[in-house]
Backbone:
C-alpha cells in the first residue's frame, strides 16, 4: 500500500489530537464532595431566586477541577462517611459533617487541620464563635471548619397577633408564656390556633431552646450532665401545664418540622421555635397564607437579657484517607473567605461569621439578619464529643415528652434523664 503525503499528514494530526486530549484529560482532576443537597445548593447557587452565584464552580474552573457532588439526607450521608473512613483509601475528598455526628470515632479519622491552617490560614476562622470551633476539636486538634449554622429563633405571626390585640413579639420569658396563652384561640373562620409550636416529635433542638430559656441545660461548659436541675423541672412543669391547657399543639409528641411549617403557613399556630432560616419558608407567597407577616426574633430568656438560642453546625472536613487532600483544603479555603461567606449566605446559607450580617446585601435580602447575628453570638452548641450522643438526644425527647404529656412528673423525668444520660456520656 502506497502512502501519500496527505495520508501521512492526516495520520499525524490524528495522533497529535489524541495525545493532546490525553494530556488535557490528565490535567483535569475530580474532587468528590459528600454533603446534604442543601450544601451543594448554597455553594453553587442552584435554587431559583438566589443571588450569590456559583462559588464552588468558580473555584473548580480556576483550578481545572471537576466537582462530583454526592448528596443525600443526614443519616445516609453519615453512614456513607463512616464506611468511607474505614477504607484504605476513600473516594470522598471533602465531607460535610453535622456536629452531632462529629464523635471521637469519626473525628479520629479526619485530617487534623492545624498544620495546614498555619501554612495557609482560613480567612474567617478567627471570626467564628469559639463554641463552634470547640465542638469540632478532637484531642486538641481542629478537624473541621464550620460552614453552616441552624440557630433557633422565635417566629411570630403579626396578623394573628393583631387579631388578639398584641402588637409586638414577647420580650421576656414571662411575656412569652402569657402571649402563648393569649394566642391560643379560635379565629372567626373556625381555625383553632395553638399559641406555640415546635418540632418535638423527631428532633430535640427546639424543645431544648424553650427549656434553656428557663436556664435549663443538658450539659454545663465542662461537659458535666446537668439535666436534673431546678430550672429543668420548672421548664418541664410549665410546658406540661401549657399542654394541658391547649396552648401547645395537641399532637405535640408527634409534631415534625413539616407539621410546624404547615401550622405556621396556614395560621394554625401563632408562634414557633425554629431556625431563623425558616423565615423564607413561612413567608413564601406560593405556599403561605401570611406572606410577609411572619417575623422572627431572638427567643427571650429568664436568665440572659440577650435571649437564648441553640445551634447545630455543619462543617467541612477532609478524610485522613482522602486522595486529593490539597485540593480539598483549597476548596475549603475558597468557601470560607469573607466574600464567599456572604455570597453563599445570599444563596440561603447560615453564615458562621457573625460579621457577615453587617453586609448591606444580606440586610436587604433578609430582614432578620440583626436578630440572627445576635442569636449566633449567644447560641449554645449541644456537646456531642462522645460516641453515643445521638442516643442522648433520643433520651431527652423521651423523658421530656413523658413530662409534657403528664405520663411522668417533671421531677421524675428530669431525674431519669440525668441518670440515663450520665451512663452514656461517660
Residues:
Amino acid at each position: 500500500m502506497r502512502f501519500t503525503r496527505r495520508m501521512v499528514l492526516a495520520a499525524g494530526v490524528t495522533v497529535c489530537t489524541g495525545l493532546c486530549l490525553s494530556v488535557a484529560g490528565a490535567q483535569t482532576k475530580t474532587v468528590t464532595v459528600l454533603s446534604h443537597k442543601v450544601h451543594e445548593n448554597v455553594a453553587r447557587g442552584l435554587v431559583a431566586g438566589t443571588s450569590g452565584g456559583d462559588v464552588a464552580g468558580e473555584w473548580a474552573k480556576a483550578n481545572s477541577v471537576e466537582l462530583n457532588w454526592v448528596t443525600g439526607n443526614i443519616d445516609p450521608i453519615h453512614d456513607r462517611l463512616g464506611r468511607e473512613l474505614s477504607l484504605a483509601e476513600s473516594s470522598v475528598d471533602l465531607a460535610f459533617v453535622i456536629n452531632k455526628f462529629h464523635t471521637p470515632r469519626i473525628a479520629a479519622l479526619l485530617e487534623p487541620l492545624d498544620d495546614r491552617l498555619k501554612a495557609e490560614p482560613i480567612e474567617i476562622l478567627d471570626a467564628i464563635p469559639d463554641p463552634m470551633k470547640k465542638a469540632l476539636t478532637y484531642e486538641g486538634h481542629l478537624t473541621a471548619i464550620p460552614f453552616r449554622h441552624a440557630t433557633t429563633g422565635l417566629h411570630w405571626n403579626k396578623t394573628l397577633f393583631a387579631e388578639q390585640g398584641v402588637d409586638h413579639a414577647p420580650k421576656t420569658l414571662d411575656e412569652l408564656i402569657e402571649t402563648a396563652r393569649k394566642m391560643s384561640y379560635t379565629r372567626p373562620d373556625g381555625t383553632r390556633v395553638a399559641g406555640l409550636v415546635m418540632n418535638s416529635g423527631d428532633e430535640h433542638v427546639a424543645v431544648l431552646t424553650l427549656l434553656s430559656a428557663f436556664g435549663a441545660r443538658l450539659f454545663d461548659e465542662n461537659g458535666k450532665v446537668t439535666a436534673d436541675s431546678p430550672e429543668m423541672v420548672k421548664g418541664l412543669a410549665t410546658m406540661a401545664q401549657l399542654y394541658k391547657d391547649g396552648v401547645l399543639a395537641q399532637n405535640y409528641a408527634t409534631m415534625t418540622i413539616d407539621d410546624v411549617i404547615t401550622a405556621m403557613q396556614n395560621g394554625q399556630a401563632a408562634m414557633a421555635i425554629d431556625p431563623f432560616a425558616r423565615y423564607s419558608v413561612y413567608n413564601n407567597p406560593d405556599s403561605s397564607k401570611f406572606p410577609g407577616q411572619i417575623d422572627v426574633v431572638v427567643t427571650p430568656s429568664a436568665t440572659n437579657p440577650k435571649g437564648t438560642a441553640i445551634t447545630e453546625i455543619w462543617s467541612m472536613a477532609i478524610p485522613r484517607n482522602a486522595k486529593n487532600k490539597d485540593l480539598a483544603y483549597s476548596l475549603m479555603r475558597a468557601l470560607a473567605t469573607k466574600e464567599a461567606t456572604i455570597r453563599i449566605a445570599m444563596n440561603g446559607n447560615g453564615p458562621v461569621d457573625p460579621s457577615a450580617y453587617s453586609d448591606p446585601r444580606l440586610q436587604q435580602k433578609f430582614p432578620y439578619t440583626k436578630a440572627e447575628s445576635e442569636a449566633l453570638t449567644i447560641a449554645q452548641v449541644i456537646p456531642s464529643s462522645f460516641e453515643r450522643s445521638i442516643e442522648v438526644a433520643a433520651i431527652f425527647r423521651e423523658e421530656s415528652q413523658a413530662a409534657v404529656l403528664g405520663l411522668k412528673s417533671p421531677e421524675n423525668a428530669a431525674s431519669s434523664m440525668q441518670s440515663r444520660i450520665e451512663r452514656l456520656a461517660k
